[in-house]
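Q: Is it fine to ask for two folds in a single conversation?
A: Yes, each is treated on its own. Send the first.
Q: Here.
A: Result:
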Amino acid sequence: MVFSKSLKWTRSLALLVAALVVVMASSSLGFAQSRDRLIIALPIDITIPDLHKGSGLPAFGAVAQIADPLVIERDGELVPWIAESWESADGGRSLIFKIRDGVMAHDGTEITAEDVAWSINRFREISIGRSSLQVVTEVKELDGNRVQVSTEEPFAPLLNTFTYTLIGVYSKDAYDAAGSDEAFSLHPVGPGPYKFVEWVPGQRLVLEAFDEYWAGAPAIETVEFRVILDEASRIAALEAGEIDAIHAFSPLEAQRLSENPDIVVINPPSAGFIRLNMNTQKPPFDDVRVRQAIAYGLDREALAEGIFLGTAPVAHSLVPAGTFGYTGEYDVYEHNPEKARQLLEEAGVPNLSFTLSYGSGRYLLDSEVVTIVQAQLAEIGVNVEIQAMEWAQFSQFIRQPPAEAQSQMSLTWWRSVNGDPDSAIGVFTEAEMPPGGNNPTYYVSEEFERLYAAQQVEPDPEARRQLLEDLQRVLMEELPAIPLYNQPQLWAVRADVIGLEDVITPLSTLEPLYTVSIE
């Protein structure tokens, strides 16, 4: 990749100006440089400090420090947190958590089964992520500081679902004392490692260490999440030492920052990946040979390397790598232009033409990605018209009812929210058919539905693993969507910040920050 001197000069000048702006702004606001204060810049605003009401994954990682989860996931293993243990009951239809005794909230009350049951139910009622617990029919407290979560049928991924960052526990006593739901949302109280201090919309969220945190007092006294929407300004502030960590920037900047001895660039494993969706109910993509031809016509390795400079490995399944049961075994679509042309001939569309739609700017370097897709497919005689749309417009466009759908091919991101493939692969079920669901491929398969239902109730892990592999085989053979690459989640941290890389989740949220320190 080559850049002209003028482009480099323009970029350098922009970074210098941005640095001066940040330094001046920081001085005027009186932000004293203190190593007892960890400052993390966010690429999006924090819409509200209430974990159950907010939106945007980076913002969730900030407000999650006030609440605390029941369990967390590390390296594929579930780690007890506020729930010290759990057991299955009622033939797999209930999950019973034993809540850790002596967990204190910021208001001085002890977190009990009542707080946990109330918090889960509040999440089920108001959270943007509440569909993750849609299968739950009842949550109630039991004696012995226990909470029972019930489903109508056994649901194998239920325990993993409680690793979802959004399902945090708050103090019910503090909620009742607040006087209203809105008042609590503006000053939430939980048992997390940091207490709420200040929230200024569009600017910052400030938290203070909770010394009675059950897992140990936080190493840093104050954590500030500062909103800096502009990428160049975030980078300039990091390089100037005004902030300690940033998130979301280009691979080119990652490459440059990695040469700075005062900065460490991190690209943790990602639970999200980018895919090309094809409308399987309308021509030309109602013919599986056409869908497979597109896959053979793409050089995904060249695309990922050329645009993301090695930070985005090619995705080989329609579930994220690293989730339970993942396999890339059924991805047979190596770049093969000759086979692509042969399949198009067999399908009777040697001069194929279609539209590729995407929400411009939604995903890292998405405009560059669709341009490369267009160029690669032109080499096999396929004409691709690119349709860039505003995200809100695009989001509605790919959720039209099947009979009215105009979408032919679309570019989207998808993920697992809990380390289990169920929440990723379920998007291809009929239950996710638009307009109510998130299946932009309009894919329907009796075999897929049968296997999907079977894995949800299968109690034996190895038997369930086989079912999940079978599901991936079906999807990679019928190919309603083409997995492109794992979405990089780039972070950069000042070198004297210790341990931040250990608490970044595969969704780029943050686990409890109490172990993070500054040398």
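Q: Second one now.
A: Result:
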Amino acid sequence: MDDVQIDDVDRSILHQLQLNARQTDTEIAEKVDVTSTTVRNRLDKLEDGGVIRGYHPEINYERAGYPLHVMFVCTVNPNKLETMAEQILDVRGVVTTRDLLGGERNVHIEVVADTVREIEEIRNELADLGLTINSSEIISETQVQSWDHFYPRPAPDARQDDTDD
């Protein structure tokens, strides 16, 4: 897949989605100062190019009945990382897995559970997959920085897109 070139209009659209992914194309268009057709065309390009990988809710697991939120720091043979990811995600309670580029501790696995017993069962299932569990940490809060942090730019000039898209 070719790299997708993004510009200020794309960045502004991405920022609007991070603020509220349930906005309509028209609502985003008003905030970015382009037409809704431009927004739809840009979203299609960003989705097709893999820049936008999905639209997911941000879940408060504690309020959803899973008060325990734990990060396991693990070690996996680097040659098995890609195939292990699917197996790890199949373990009940696993919500994310992150492969790290270097170092011995090369996988972070985030899990949620209702009880300590469930956390122990998840830990045992991960160990049965062949992971070495180096540590576990309780996550109290997660903060996410929106795209605008990297590219706070003034109004984009995308009027040319209205005729090109």
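Q: Anything structural to flag on that second result?
A: Two points. The radius of gyration is 20 Å. Strands lie at 68-75, 94-99, 107-113, 132-138.
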